[in-house]
Amino acid sequence: MSEITDFDALRRAMAENSEQPEGPARNARAEELLAAAEKLNIPLAVIEALGHQLKVYNYSSEKARMFVPFARLLRMWDERPDDFDEYETHTLHWVFKWVSSGMLDQPHIPLASIEKWLGEMEHRYRLAGHSERAVRSAEHSVAAHVGDLARAERAYAAWLAADRDGMADCHACELHGQGWWHAERGRDAEALELWRPVLEGEYACAHEPHAALASSLMPLLRLGRLDEARANHLRGLRLVRAMESMRGAYAEHVEFCALTGNEARGLELLAERPAYFTDDGQPQSRLGFMSVVALLMDRLTGLGLGDRQVPGPAGREWTAGELATHARAEALALAARFDERNGTTYVSERARARMEQRPLVERLPLGVRSVRPVPPPAPEVVTAAATGQPDLPALLAAARRLSDNLRPGAVEAWAAVAEAAEGVAGVDLDPRDRAEIADHEAMGLGPEGAALFERAAELYAAAGDPGEALAARARAAYVRALGGDVDAALAAVSGPYDEILALYAAGDTGIRQTASVLMGRARIQMRRAHEAGGPGAGEGPAEGAAGPDTVLGESMGSGSEAVLTEAEAAVREVLALVGGRDGEDVRLAARAAEAQAMLAELAGLRGDLKAAAGLFARGAAAFVAAGLPWFAVEYEARLASLAHHLGDMAEAERALRAALEHGGAQLEATGRAQLHLQLAELTGDRGDAVEAAQHALEASHWADEAGEGATLGAWARQQLGGFLLRQGRWAEAAEVLESALPDLTAETHGDGAIVQTQWWLGDCLSELGEHRAAAERRLQAAEIARHWPEQHDHATLAHLAGESLGQAGLADEADRAYARAGDLWRELGNVQGLIRSVRARAWLALRAQEGVEEARALMAEAVRECEAARDTAADAESRQQLVAELGHTHRQFGDLLARSVSDGADDASAGAVFEEALSQVLRSAEVFASLGDAALHSRTGAELAAGRLEADLGRPADAAARASAVLATYDGYGGYGGTETDDGDADGEAVRARRAEAEQILRLAEEEQPD
Question: Which of 126, 107, 109, 127 is nearest to 117 (CA)?
């Protein structure tokens, strides 16, 4: 680090240090610079170095250290005020506010000293001629802190009544403080209205909207404005992450997580900032942070996770329960110190209230990956009131009611019966009960349940129900088919099939049992039909996993017609049995509905997709009509897939919405995620990015709940980030995309998804002004795309990386990226891309010392490339595009030449360059004129640029003539006494801009012309 030998070097060093991240390193450098300033023997140098030191202390975790440099500054002012220039005089009075608020944050400073300091501030402001606005604001802070609410309200009113002057906080900070007070007093809507200009970016400063975004979270949650709360969390956290001094705002984001079911996210935030547990330079913010830590840990402990390891103060490992106790004790000890200083209990009361908050939302999905750290709830067991033992008759009745009516949870209910029977001594269930237990246990085992189904058949027979025994044997045969042995399954079901028909004909069994056997046989025939159509042909997706590209078979119609005919006959036999009688029994209605869906599958296997879609719709409607809407979900999902394949996006969307509605609470998390993801795609494709983002958000949430955050969840987050980007919600999109990236892999998601995510993320970071990071993302994406056969994406990403590198001040790296893009554009035959990359390199060269000649050469090369391509264009449209590009290149050449003139250039050399620039701009106007009205605004823009150059060359009459010609060109356009146009369209905006510029040139020309 070079030695400071003069005042200018000191100022440069302080400016450089100001740009460094907040923290101890920056503070230490400020101390070194103060020592260097003292050696210069220049009073103002010391004053500025003290001011710099005070500023970096204030914006760090070491706020307590700012009182010493301020006391020294104030003493220097009192002794020799003439040593202070105008700026440092202003700064000295400005930081009175920092010191007064800083004193409040330090419980060791007596309240009497703070009040005395407040009077000193008021006295000095009055002497300096400043308004009392800043003083009343400081008084309000003191009164609010100690809980003197009446005085706080008076000071608040006086604050707003006083005139704003140079000592008032910036608009953003003032509005934040005013809104904070409304929120403290329970006026959430008023607070949010005050914060609106800050949250929307109308007012900003070093710490705003960072703080306002954090403060808005609780009011938004309390008002039920959840989407805004989520957005403000994602935006605000991104802003405060790197700012050491914003522990209080950071704590509000942790608090938000604790109260919205995002406990895991809260733990991640704690792990990111371990120093926040122990930094003691600002006790007030540490009190707030530890209060929120206690809140989060109490929440985890209440969820049964008190033994979970969590991030905490360095030096040992912590469980949630242990950290809860520690954090609460720390917070209350700090609060007690403040209360002792203030002579009240107000700070402790507020700390306790904050730690005792209850969740405001059970779970608010955020879009970033975060699995809820909650153990599964234990199943509820019905017990007899007298004994506390399981009430077996009640459990049996409940299970039978669920299974008889095909209600969700029947398998689990029978499992509870079995468990209860084992736990009650002396219980001997009858064969029928044991049969149903075995039957339902087998249903939960899939292909592994065949033997248990056979055992259930034996028990049904022993219970005197031969029909149900045959139905259980048919189920055993079907699960063998699910295991892949279809021929054995057909053989196994043939006996029960013949026997049930004989029993039914003799009146020895009912239609329900008969329909069950016939359906079992039909299902096996359907498995055989699917196998005949090829592996997986005709099968719908696994439950809950339907995707928009899943149709009824890759090889529609390729199965054996004989097999399809046999399957159809089996299905129609079911329909013939239950047809007209399905209103009598919910089970019969389910058989009829499933048979319709089977006919849909067969139609699909034959290649008749429209018929398949209609039959799936009919089957789904039958399930809904029977009061079994959750069974309709699978078929509605298949219908959506078919409709998507057939190009009927409206029907696909309708079916997906119906599937979500009908699935209800019974829909598994994976299925819900899949359905929402498909809806995100469909709504996004029709241009509704807002609704698409909502569905993608839900998809990411349910994928996390299903334990598929790294697979399906990553897809959903990638899509969510893209939809947020389309809405211009850059910070939110960046947070979501950064969360998705670690889980996206080429093996699972494809390298195209990774490139797209990096690309989108680069776009977001560019919009946020994080140009170096944007360049990194774009270069990473370009490196992957470099290996693709088609190189257009590679070229585009290299070009975008050049833009970001240039904006980040990395000129050499930017030039290399643009050169790489140019080579790729040339290989692709994309002349416009090539020309733009060359022009970009020319502008980069102009920034470099002695780079003017290289900039000229590059711009001349762009002109030559453009002219050559124009002369060999393949068609009229291409030629017109290249002519327009040539016009823009001449215009940029002129602008570049004009900007190359240095402030110290002599008149003769400057005039020569301006003349050359003028010739390029006039050439641009001529080229645009050849395109007619299509390039009108480009031509008039060039004409006005020429007018400005003529004014610079001392030819005001020529400049005025050009401006008048442009005004005449726009005679008749809306808003200027002529034809009406849409004031909001781009054409109208261009007209207004050109006329305003022309009128300005005319005014300047008139001022410059001799009388």
Answer: 109
